[in-house]
Amino acid sequence: xxxxxxDEMGCCVASALNEVGDWWSLLIxxxxxxxTRRYVDFQNSLGIAKNILCNRLSRLxxxxxxxxxxxxxHGKRYEYRLTDKGRDLFTVVTALRQWSERWNGAQDSxxxxxxxxxxxxxxxxxxxxxxxxxTVRDVRFVDEDGKPFEExxxxxxx
Length: 158
Description:
Blueprint: H1 12-20, H2 23-33, H3 39-46, H4 50-62, E1 66-70, E2 78-82, H5 84-87, H6 90-104, E3 126-127, E4 133-134
Antiparallel strand pairs: 1-2, 3-4
């Protein structure tokens, strides 16, 4: 079954989903954030089928989220490492984790803490320029000319 693509939608969220918008891709990225680098370790830690893992790693490399590095041990051996683009997904993974903990309860014993202080991370929030937290009710969606979507007769993108 071919996965739906969102190339023609003209939407930033749809564009991001083209690159990392399936269950396995973000789990692979999260596992890489934990330090997993080798194909066999991804497979063992996630319990993912080889064909799916191969496909997702290839797509993540193709999209610049990960890079495949020849580590040259015992012939050809590769590791998969996050690029800057992949590391920038840390906020997304953390927000999804915090959202799930709030609405689904803790599903594992892992906690995210500040490496320097050992304190738990603060909740991920959207903030205004002054650092004040905002909700979707505090935000207006505008087009490239600054015109609000609702005034232009267009539905809000969310």
